[in-house]
Design brief:
Helix 2 crosses helix 3. This protein has 3 helices and 4 strands. The model has no long low-confidence stretch (mean pLDDT 81). With 118 residues, the chain is an alpha+beta fold. A 4-stranded mixed beta sheet has the order 3-2-1-4, with helices on one face.
């Protein structure tokens, strides 16, 4: 990590330490499904991996997918994962879907139909 930060011209230590935090997940409302989605890239650009886990309104596992989809950038992986999760849920007949992602930009892009040009 130190070599990476020095290569960017950054020096010193971070001002805040990373502190693990436990979060209690809550199931979605009755009749809804929750998708926890994540996209990953091995390097930028690199091999893209996408996956999602689906839960029903009682908090039980309802389905999942994980696959390698080709080459791209991290933002592409997040967008493709979000879109694949919506398509997967629709194919299962789950029309009320709550999507959780670590990329707010990907969610905003899908919801607002913003076209991003790299």
């Amino acid at each position: 990590m130190a070599l990476f930060t020095r290569s960017l011209g950054l020096t010193g230590c971070p001002t805040r330490r990373w502190v693990p935090m436990f979060v209690r997940c809550r199931p979605p409302k009755d009749g809804w499904y929750k998708a926890n989605v994540d996209g990953r890239v091995s390097s930028a650009p690199g091999c893209m991996y996408v996956g999602a886990i689906f839960y029903n309104s009682r908090g039980f596992f309802a389905g999942a997918f994980c696959t390698r989809i080709g080459w791209g950038y991290p933002m592409e992986a997040e967008l493709v994962t979000t879109l694949h999760s919506i398509i997967y849920a629709h194919a299962q007949g789950w029309f009320f879907l709550w999507v959780e992602s670590d990329s707010s930009l990907a969610i905003d892009t899908v919801l607002k139909k913003i076209l991003l040009v790299p």
